[in-house]
Structure formats: C-alpha cells, structure tokens
Amino acid sequence: MIRIGILGYGNLGKGVESAIRQNPDMELAAVFTRRNPENIKVRTEGTKVLGAEELERMQDAIDVLILCGGSATDLPVQTPRYAAMYNVVDSFDTHAKIPEHFAAVDSAAKGAGKVGVISCGWDPGMFSLNRLYANCVLPQGHDYTFWGKGVSQGHSDAVRRIEGVKDCRQYTIPVPEALDAVRSGSNPELSTRQKHTRECFVVAEEGADLQRIEEEIKTMPNYFADYDTTVHFITEEEMKRDHSGLPHGGCVIRTGNTGWEQENSHVIEYSLKLDSNPEFTGSVIAAYARAAYRMNQEGMSGAKTVFDIAPAYLSAESGDYLRAHLL
Amino acid sequence: MIRIGILGYGNLGKGVESAIRQNPDMELAAVFTRRNPENIKVRTEGTKVLGAEELERMQDAIDVLILCGGSATDLPVQTPRYAAMYNVVDSFDTHAKIPEHFAAVDSAAKGAGKVGVISCGWDPGMFSLNRLYANCVLPQGHDYTFWGKGVSQGHSDAVRRIEGVKDCRQYTIPVPEALDAVRSGSNPELSTRQKHTRECFVVAEEGADLQRIEEEIKTMPNYFADYDTTVHFITEEEMKRDHSGLPHGGCVIRTGNTGWEQENSHVIEYSLKLDSNPEFTGSVIAAYARAAYRMNQEGMSGAKTVFDIAPAYLSAESGDYLRAHLL
Predict the structure, then answer these.
(1) Is A258's CB within 8 Å of B18's CB?
(2) What was the pLDDT predicted at A232?
(3) What are phi and psi of B4, to 5 degrees?
(4) Residue B23's pLDDT is what?
C-alpha cells in the first residue's frame, strides 16, 4: 500500500481523497491542515486530521505527500519545504514561474533523496503531455489549446470583487468557428477574441446598479477586455440550482505536415470533457503520486514534471500486463 | 547528429526518410535492402543504398537502425537480430505476439548494451499511450478504440486474393451513432458490427462474376463476415484517381467517473486524422529513434515500448525549454 498524505482539504484535497478510494494500492494515511483540525471532517473512515506542523515528524507514516494549496502563495513555499522531507506532488500552475519553482523543488528533493512532481493536473499536466508528444511527432506544424466550456475560478473571483456583486460564476467557451477552422488543418492565426468567449452569471446585491456592474466586467483589463463577454443577472436560487458544479475541459490540437514536399497533412487532437475540474485534477495527481513513489523506490530523486516520467510508472499493473492489454 | 539507418525502403521506409528530413538533429546515414541496391533510388541526396548484409559491419556509422519490414515474417527475425548490434526501432503490430517479441528483443539488446524500441507508431504507439494514461487517470471507466475512416492494407490484400479481383481498396469506417453514444458517456456495450462498417472499392477482371466476388467478400470469415460491408465496382482509372492515398486515423476514448459516490463523469478522447498512414507512422518512429539514442547514451539498454519512455526523451529540446514552452 502506498500511504498518501494530503495537505489542504479544499476542493482539490477532496478530489484527491476520492481518487485514492479508486486506487486499491493506495490508502489515505492522514489529512493535514493549517486550520483547526477539529473543524475538519474527512470522508475516509478512520483517517486522522492533523495540524500541518505534524508534518515535521510523520516521515515514517507517509510515502507521498500531496500538496493541495494554491499556486499564488502556498505552493512556492510548501513544495520545496516538504520535498526536503517527503516525496511530493503539486499542481503548481503559474506558467511563468514554473522554471524557478522547478529549480527550488529540485534542489530540496535531491538533497533529501526524494521525488517532487510539480505542475500535475490537466493544464499543466495532460494537456502539456499532449503538446509535447504532438510536437515531437509533427515537428512542422501549429499548436492550439482551447479551454472550456468550463468554470474559470480566477475569473469568477475577479467579478466577485466588483462592488455590488454577491456571487459570480464565469464560463470560458471556445468559439465553434475557431475550433472548426483549426480542425480543418487550415492553420488559422487566431486572436484572443477569436478563440474564446466569456459568459458570466452574476448575483447582484439588492439595489445594485446592474448596468455599471456589467460595464465594469466587460472592460476589466486582462480578465475580460480582450474577449466578447455576456453577462446574465440571476437569483441566488438560480445560481445554486444551475451553477453549483465545477465542470471544465478543452482540447489541445496540433496540425502539421509530412512527406517529401510536406504534401500530407495531419490533425492530432486531445480533448477533455470534465464534470468536475478538481476531481479530475485529483485523479491525475493520484496517478502521479504512484509514479513518484515507484521512481523513488528505484532510487531516483529530484524535481520531475509529466515530461520526465515514463507512462508505465503511473500504473499499478506490471509491464507484462500493460504490454499484453493496452499496447 | 543522430545517424539513422533504414532497413526496408517501402512505404514505411520512405515515411521515415521524410520524417528525418524534418528533424534537424538527424541524418539518414544509409538505406539497407534485401533487394538489389542498384535498383533502389532514395530521395535523400548523397545517401548510400546498401545490401542488408552490410549491416554486419556498419556499427560505427549508424546510431539507430529503423526496421521497416512487416510484422508477419520480417520483424520477428530482424528486430532481435539487429538489436544485438544496434539501437533499433520497429513498428511490430501483431498484438498477440508482442510479449514474445518483447522478450526476444530484450534479451538481444541487453546482451549488446543497446536499446530496442518495439511496436512504435500510432496503434500500437500513440493510441496505446493514450489508453494507458486514460486508464491510470480514470481507474473506473470504459475504453473504446475506433479506427478510420481509413485504408486497411490487410483487408485490401485479402480481397485482392479473391479470384477475378485485380485491385481493391478497403476503408474501415466508424459508425457515427456508436461514436456519439460513447462520447455521451453512456458506456454502451458495442458489438463488432455496431462499431465499424467496411467499404470496398474493387477493380474486377474483365468478365468476372461480380455477384460472386461481392458474396465472397461479404462472407469472408474474420475479415468481413462480422461487419456490414458495402462493395463498389470501379474502373482502374477511378482507382488511381480517387483511391491512391493511404489515409487513416481513429480515436481512443475513455469514459469514467470520479467523486465519493462516483457522481461525476468525464470523457477523455484522443483522435488522429491522417492523410498518410505510413508517413505519420514514420514520424512517430523518428521521434522514438531520438529517444532510443538518448536513453542508450545515458547507459540504458533492453527492449522498450512507448510505455517505458519518458516523453522528454522524444524531444530535441532541453528540459528547461520544454518546461518554459510546453508545460
């Protein structure tokens, strides 16, 4: 049994917990929190909830620690820190800061003889893998990534900070015509606006100026100004009834040519339709926790991304089984 | 420069040759043939064509030898034989015999300190990878593989062996309703007949009994009897004009559930639309030739499949570059 620890019991931590339940070679050894452990009730029977400070002395009870904090402030500190004590997996997704995060985790993990898998999930994660494989197989081509239809938490939060907004759910939606053009192999150059639209469902406070809220959303720099955005005002009941899930998804497409004169074209597409973004991310992380454990058992150490991990490490099955059944 | 040798200059060998041209860190060192080398003209300027027997003494000039023979009789002999002298890559695709092929290549390659990558292409190959990743990420789910629309060479050959048939091109076509049902996440159980149809374009000899030919095709065991098959008789000119390409493709879909009560469903789909089956296969093989070379440079040896090879080995770029640009 691979003994897993989870640090942080939000949506992602709960997703990881569910995933562990589906993997018979894993058990949830403990959940760690920076809140008061007494206020947290986990669903896995018999699993302890402990304060994060207990991690200083749990090395004998945990094979892989999964870090379920946020990329902005939690993971840059937590992942290097705990990679010096445990095999770890995180879902660090601030693309621009991945190089420095990798370097910090690499140094800590190598020093401790542990494996630290960073940036694991679906983007970065499964989408990254597909970008890499497709680029290697079709060196001459074009890459496209579309997200959605799905809930963007960052954009929902940004709208919630507007005065007069009680709640918001923001959906990112690929433009169907853009998708069709890419799939046709015509290699279109697409602007931000041409690739995605944004749709906001907003619960406003009573008496709020709806026109001002809509205007503030649509002109918000970075988040909405470069997109065609639709705003719907709804009631709290409608929000709860119609928008309580966290669906997401998208696709990675590479089109490219082969042949002596590049006369033949090809389309590689990887797509995800996810009912629950955090549960799917948690499932990817669970598979990579197995890989981290197995690679460390074989003596490897240091920071790894999905690019550095041979696919067979993700599976509980033997090489013989995989070759016979999945190859 | 990675110096590549090709054994066998048919459609696949030519596809590999084109792929090498797209990879600036590779060069085609020589083409080897069991035919008379004087009768073969390769497109890469300055590349020698040599008899296969020359492979006994070319170890200093070739880093990776790509075996482009057939799975029925060529590769079971060639791959173990040459894995004892070179890093090799093949596209062995007789699924039932992969375990024994792997064992034979593993033993030869380990003895020689070389890497032998077997069963490389898109199925087995990229499709296998996607089956494995999706199974690890969604342990509770269902797998589906659809092929086509595309030309099946084996089925085309089978029809050509019927008396009175001069030429045939057989297309395998996924049933759209089956694809829709799978993508909906309803986990349908699908029979062979429900998943694919087959379409044959046949050039008959003058005076041949067309009704008998059609009957023989449709009732041919293993190849056609379990499918709904359509037969069209066409002229040689039409064959040349409309059916000279070798397109193929298909998709691998896994649907599965997550959540404490498995309440959320997910669809992972990987699809390929290929103008040229042998050129795409050749492109996959070229990327894995790079991996074979690099893994061997790091001291690894033995038989490998796509499951055993970390994705980063396929790329000519550094880990830093990949993390910054593709993760």
Answers:
(1) yes
(2) 98
(3) -100, 140
(4) 98
Instruction: Please report the residues numbered 50 through 89 in chain B whose beta carbons come closer than 8 angstroms to any beta carbon of chain A.
Output: none
Reference B136, options B307, B287, B261; nearest CA is: B307
Query: Are A40 and A56 spatial neighbours (Cβ–Cβ below 8 Å)?
Result: no
Asked whether the beta carbons of residue A258 and residue B279 sit closer than 8 angstroms, the reply is: yes
Token representation of residue A255: 């089109």
**Contact status of A274 with chain B (Cβ, < 8 Å):** yes
| Mean pLDDT taken over chain B | 97
Q: What is the pLDDT of residues A248-267, one digit of tens each?
A: 999 999 999 999 999 999 99
Q: How far is CA A193 from CA A172, A321, B50, B308, in A?
A: 12, 47, 55, 41
- Inter-helix orientation angle B126-137/A277-297, to 10°: 100
User: How far apart are alpha carbons B226 and B231 in whole angstroms?
Assistant: 15
Report ipTM for this prediction.
0.96
Residue A43 φ/ψ region, left for φ over 0, alpha for ψ in the -120 to 50 degree band, beta for the rest? alpha
Measured CA to CA, the distance from residue B139 to residue B34 in angstroms comes to 46
CA–CA distance from A201 to each of A151, A198, A230, A278, B290 (Å)?
11, 10, 9, 21, 49
Task: Summarize the confidence of residues A209-231 as an average pLDDT.
Answer: 97
Tell if the CB–CB gap between A266 and B273 is shorter than 8 Å: yes
Look at B327 and A18 and tell me if their CB atoms are within 8 Å.
Answer: no
In this predicted structure, what is the pLDDT of residue B111? 98
- Choose the closest CB to A287 out of B130, B136, B264: B136
Q: pTM for the complete prediction?
A: 0.96
pLDDT number for residue B140: 96
pLDDT at A17: 98
Q: Would you give the distance in Å from CA B121 to the centre of its chain?
A: 4
Give the minimum alpha-carbon distance from B181 to chain A in angstroms, rounded to a whole number.
14
Please report the pLDDT score of residue A281 as a whole number: 98
